[in-house]
Amino acid sequence: ESDSASEISFQFNRHKKTPSIGSHSSDMASVSSVSGSVLSVYSGDFGSVDAQGTVEFALDYDEKNREFQVHVSQCKDLAVVDEKKGRSDPYVKTYLLPDKARMGKRKTSVKKRTVNPIYNEVLRYKIEKMVLLIQKLNLSVWHNDPLGRNSFLGEIEIDLASWDWSNRKLNWYPLKPRSLSAVSGVDHRGVMNLSIKYVPPRSLGKWPKNPPSGEVHIWVKDVKDLLQLRPSGVDSFVKCYVLPDTSKKSYQKTRVIKRDTNPVFNHTIVYDGFHTEDLKDACVELTVWDHEKLTNHFLGGIRLGLGTGLSYGISVDWMDSTQEEVAFWQEMMLAANEWIEGLLPLRSL
Known about the structure:
Blueprint: E1 4-9, E2 54-62, E3 67-76, E4 90-97, H1 100-103, E5 106-107, E6 118-126, H2 129-132, E7 136-143, E8 151-159, E9 171-174, H3 180-185, E10 191-199, E11 214-224, E12 236-243, E13 252-253, E14 264-274, E15 283-290, E16 297-304, E17 310-311, E18 314-315, H4 323-334, E19 340-345
Parallel strand pairs: 1-14
Antiparallel strand pairs: 2-3, 2-9, 3-6, 4-5, 4-7, 7-8, 10-11, 10-19, 11-14, 12-13, 12-15, 15-16, 17-18
């Protein structure tokens, strides 16, 4: 049994000239409420040079302005990217991990034709000290290419929980090759445990005539290993849309579970108005959010559909389901009236 259940009527616009009375039409070209993808820490890396050299920087936290400051001084003996011209055009980039999307990246200026660039720039993050202490700083050096084919030159990763904050001096650190943990695990956002079911029109009880459509049932059970944005945990909830409809009629959400990185929601949502052919063009989008007073922070999500890139013949960026998500949706389509259980990894959308 679910802790809560919500049922809404949902009808797709299949470009009928005269919609039926009371039907809800949705814009086929509408996009997801969570648009844009978050690039990898190593996005745009086309180089194959070995990491070498050192970087000089200092860390500080301004208590008055609640600001984390990375003073990037200079680099020495960086790798040469263009060997014919003996040239590198380096810049320094920083992220706060694990949630690189929340705080974003910071970059220095590009210094051209040098393997010993001098920056003397401060990269700033507005962030509470308690939140900062559960982050890691990823500082990397890159060669800037005019065509965007940037090359990775080395990095250093610092656990800010163990950092000596009395040390405000500039220090030299050796640049290292990209870490396996950063490549494979930096975007781990947790796993959602859920079940879905499609109920075709003919199985919805004793009707004088067959009901006009079927239902999709979504049972959000729990989520494991959410990103912890505060020392006290995370206050999470789940949003649900059936795309292409992003209207209030499509929108549903669970209650907020406080201070828990492994929240149990046990929440069931029922969408009616589904014709069997709609299952090929619709997409159930489930996103997990951290609730705060001023704004909610995106933690990760899944999209259940066929992942064809098309919806009702129109190209859309949200029809991008992974192989696991597509297989889950296909299994539901083939097993009418049966709950299909699954564990799906949350991802950037």
